[in-house]
């Protein structure tokens, strides 16, 4: 079942693409990385993800799978005997991990991105406060999910670790842009330590983008509004 050629359509700077790459690394799967350029979509991307036209797309044995969290779950299902399990084994823990992963994309990330596009000081401050509040919720989620272990998933990186951890480079870029720390020892001690562990994990470290390179990229993607 686990054989077949694997390709990934994506870009080095994308959080969502990084999720798929971490999952492939955790499972020791070799793949061809087909790099897209932001602002222009390849024929293959449009053909493989005609609904959303977004990366990542995993192509396994010529069949496309879209949406980062779905790709991560697919990788876990297909390569179930290779590397560690990505989803928690208990159905309740799986449901909770999926709940928080949806929260991260639908709420936390939306507030975080809004800091980069905010108009003026007041709006920026309001989004900073929103991210603070939402990050504190994630600190509590970490304490509950990890049950005293190193990662959301327990002893090793799993679904929720990937869902949040893939944002850590961009989080740092926003922290620098806003001159405000969201992860720190006093406000979010558990998440702060978790973030360091996550970034140093062998499945993550080689693909975590350099912050200066990412910050430069972010300035092009989100030019500061004038006035
Ligand atoms: N919900 C999607 C989001 C994917 C997404 O937003 N991809 C971005 C890259 S970070 C993209 O393809 N952007 C290009 C565009 O929107 O044209 C997922 O989880 O895969």
UniProtKB/TrEMBL annotation:
One Gene Ontology cellular component:
cytosol
| GST N-terminal domain segment(s) | 4-83
One Pfam entry for this protein is: GST_C
Q: Which Gene3D superfamilies match?
A: 1.20.1050.10, Glutaredoxin
Instruction: From the UniProt record, list the reaction(s) this protein catalyses.
Output: RX + glutathione = an S-substituted glutathione + a halide anion + H(+)
Does the keyword ATP-binding belong to this entry?
no
The catalytic activity of this protein is classed by the Enzyme Commission as: 2.5.1.18
InterPro entries in the record, alphabetically? Glutathione-S-Trfase_C-like, Glutathione-S-Trfase_C_sf, Glutathione_S-Trfase, Glutathione_S-Trfase_N, GST_C, GST_C_Tau, Omega/Tau-like, Thioredoxin-like_sf
User: What domain of life is recorded for the organism?
Assistant: Eukaryota
The enzyme's main class, written as a single word, is transferase
Q: Is Ligase among the key words of this record?
A: no
Mind telling me which PANTHER family this protein's record contains?
GLUTATHIONE S-TRANSFERASE U18, GLUTATHIONE S-TRANSFERASE, GST, SUPERFAMILY, GST DOMAIN CONTAINING
Q: What is this protein called?
A: glutathione transferase
Q: What's the source species for this entry? A: Cardamine amara subsp. amara
